[in-house]
Amino acid sequence: MTLRNAFSAILFSLLIPHAALGFEAPPTATAEAVLGAEATGPNYRVDPEVRSDGMLRLFVLRTRFGAFDVDGEDLMRERIRELGALRKLQAMSETDVFLKSAGQAAKAPLKFGQDLIADPKATLNKSLSGVANMFDRVGAGINNRKANRDNIVTSLLGVDAARRALGVELGVDPYTDFAPLASKLNDVATAAALGGLSIKAGLAAIPGGAGVAVSSTSTVETVRETLLQKTSAQIAEQVKATLARLSVPPSIVNRLVQNRNYTPTDLLILSRALSSLRAANTKMFIARAAYAETREEAVFQRRRAELLARHAKELGIGAFVDVAGFPLNRLNDGRLIAVFPFDQVAWTERVGGVFEKVASAAPHEQGQPVLATTGELTPLAKEEISRLGWTVDVIH
To answer: What's the rounded Cα separation, in Å, for the pair 87 and 41?
Structure first.
């Protein structure tokens, strides 16, 4: 069940007298209270009322491209960065230097197409000569066809490299699933690559020197150089190698890298985070993450891996252990810890059922288990989780 569908289940559960059962309706909030000034922008607005499913906040984002349901603060802030990047790309596409490049680009595909038909071998050699990692790219593409997100023709034309450079410079995922940005990235990258316009020159031409500064909260910055230099197939190779060193079976790794709910950027960040964590039984985490059924679930798993790595030393996070089907972790002192990037925890019927299930399966012989979460808990949720024998730690 998706996070959005879970909300409909919660609405149904509101028909039950919660006071009698000890449950509560998930609280609502205002977009301004959650997002501050970012609740509205030049090319979007977030509906004022923000609902919740008891774990993540549920936003409605309205743009000129349509309305979008966005589940969770992490993904919502990602969308806001993407809309900022979209605005900059639009400004770039209206500059004289870009329009001149676009005019040159209009002629390029036809010429390349004619060459490819007349002498495909010579054309391919011409396109690839001088590229230091050519053989690496070819081998990676053959080995990772199902994981490859690039197109052979646009790769040869330099469009894919231009798109990656644009994404990195703007602090957004070049492989974004946000359709308005993905379309604009492709359009601008095509015109720049075929028209001979460098990405830095194109961005510098934006009036006012517009915003090539990358947000400090952008996860893209942590893998900047790899995104610039490597294709999606090469990234898949890196991810496989990283997880192999953590003793994750190839069948599980292949399932992960072929899951299109993850972007290559997600996979790179997730695998590096787990490599930094170096916890025993990492295969347990990957086995669960590999079956993410939605984009929201994939973002949640990536974010969870980042949190585990960031707080590993401070909290003493160790091996993964299976508790009622959930890959939790042991602390150095033997206690269990559950690290989750929740927005806010409310004691709904669904949330209560999950915690009851986990609590009944969690051994307590080595001390109270810990819930470490990025969001606050409602008073009732905190009370009930404490009743089940858990302590709560808010992390960031």
So the answer is: 10
